[in-house]
Amino acid sequence: EAQVTQNPRYLITVTGKKLTVTCSQNMNHEYMSWYRQDPGLGLRQIYYSMNVEVTDKGDVPEGYKVSRKEKRNFPLILESPSPNQTSLYFCASSLSWRRVTEAFFGQGTRLTVV
Amino acid sequence: DAKTTQPTSMDCAEGRAANLPCNHSTISGNEYVYWYRQIHSQGPQYIIHGLKNNETNEMASLIITEDRKSSTLILPHATLRDTAVYYCIVRPQGGSEKLVFGKGTKLTVNP
Question: What is the pLDDT averaged over residues A71-96?
Answer without folding.
Answer: 96
